[in-house]
Predict the structure.
Amino acid sequence: MQEKMMGFMCKKCGKVMYPKHERCLGCKNTEFDEVSLGDECHLITFTKLYALPRGIEMSPLTLGIVEFNNKVRAMGQIMADDPEPGMDLHPVWAKLRTIDEKEVYGFKFDSIV
């Protein structure tokens, strides 16, 4: 089980990316160090989906873009009841959906209590 959301820092220019790319988006280097993105982020924007992909059990599904303190952005499911841009969230490893009777896990973003 993965506990922390990890990014990839270019060994040449220091740019942090998520997800991992074959080459650095800044300098085109191909060597990276894995780094923690942190335990807190804030919501940039979100949308609610009512026509859901197969295997998603929650309706509506809220998807959003979050930004960590190091300016790295990620997209994922938002678990907050009443999401608002700017609100503080944290990544949580949890079940995302079920496909062909197999559970798929990944990071969701939930309110900080």
Remarks:
- Residues 38-113 form a domain with the OB fold (Dihydrolipoamide Acetyltransferase, E2P) fold (CATH 2.40.50).
